[in-house]
């Protein structure tokens, strides 16, 4: 049996259960170096936003504790990932490197180059499917092309082999003695000012909390999900998105927990379909790696975005537009690092259509403020609302925030929760006229139609 250690490179999979790369390393029988690399330097890797860094700090703390419990240690290193992993191989004399796959363009390039280089050096290198139910390249249309419409995509997934069962956590990991940086030295938490009080109140990062949330949701909330999921005042959705984003919980664990509990009915179907939207966003990103910067539908390049009005953008970011549902959502986001899905759609429509501000500005703000921001779901959904994306809402579907509030927050409970001064003189008048701006947006859209 080889004694040269194995390296397990943790990325968006901060868990010890259902972790195929970790399982393979343990199976190999040698000591295991578990490493996380904070990479803010490799070309094309998008630096994490502020809320994401806050989450990462908690998630790494939780992962460190879980590995401790198995006899191992989490090694933290900072720098360009390829260089860091190479020097770790040299330092430890590792004979094998394992990781779970990533699906973004720059990440795939980096991983592929590293894999080739290590193999050329005679190392064992293996990558695994871990964070998606269906590998993006395995789901294809009858013509062999990627899907651009959700419903047939999901139908094809449902005809593919069922997602595998989750793997158990290892019982024990043989450790190695490798130096680690200190998490505190990474300064992932905000100070001066510490804006994270609301995040701390709203969330507990880590796999233990993720599994608790999953159990609670399946037991208590799933039955009401189909009805309640569109009501921002209710806590009817799973709130699993950041746990899935950071891989504290795998989609396989969610899938099979549902199977095990034999949950049926409209709520269960609807919830599974939402997991399907997550898969679709990654499928689209895999085939269009520039999703965060480039219109998925090229004809939207002809959209005449007017010159940015910075004050309007700031009012939107700070929840001071004078449109109650929009302001409530933006304040919820700032305070807690999340926003209800229905309200995300409304604020995104308001930014891109009523304020005529490029979707990329909104995507960037969400990237910085959401704890669940990921490279696929965020740009995918922004482009979906803006009309430029895959299977997007038609551009002329301009959400009317007042009608949306009447329909989905009929008692005004959600708005009052976040906009305490509603109904008083302190609350501003709307910064734009909804009707006029809607008409202006539709006029601007004529350019796209002409370019199509
Ligand atoms: P639930 O309703 O419980 O859904 C279960 C899971 O399904 C979610 O945790 C999530 O993983 C997945 N899911 C649900 N809806 C979507 C969707 N439309 N697209 C992709 N996955 C979905 N979601 C993110 O995870 N990260 C993002 O960066 C993100 N940005 C968004 C930006 C905009 C403009 C919009 C309109 C939506 C965005 N979403 C994003 C999708 C959705 O709003 C969140 O996934 C959802 O609100 C998370 O709450 P939940 O976990 O309670 O969802």
TrEMBL record:
Coiled-coil portions: none
Cited Pfam families: DNA_photolyase, FAD_binding_7
SUPFAM superfamilies (UniProt xref): Cryptochrome/photolyase FAD-binding domain, Cryptochrome/photolyase, N-terminal domain
Cofactor(s) required, per the database record: FAD
UniProt KW DNA-binding keyword: no
Keywords: Chromophore, FAD, Flavoprotein
This protein's record includes keyword Lyase: no
Chain ranges of the Photolyase/cryptochrome alpha/beta domain: 4-133
Family stated for the protein in its record: Belongs to the DNA photolyase family.
Stated name of the protein: Deoxyribodipyrimidine photo-lyase
Taxonomic source organism: Agromyces humatus
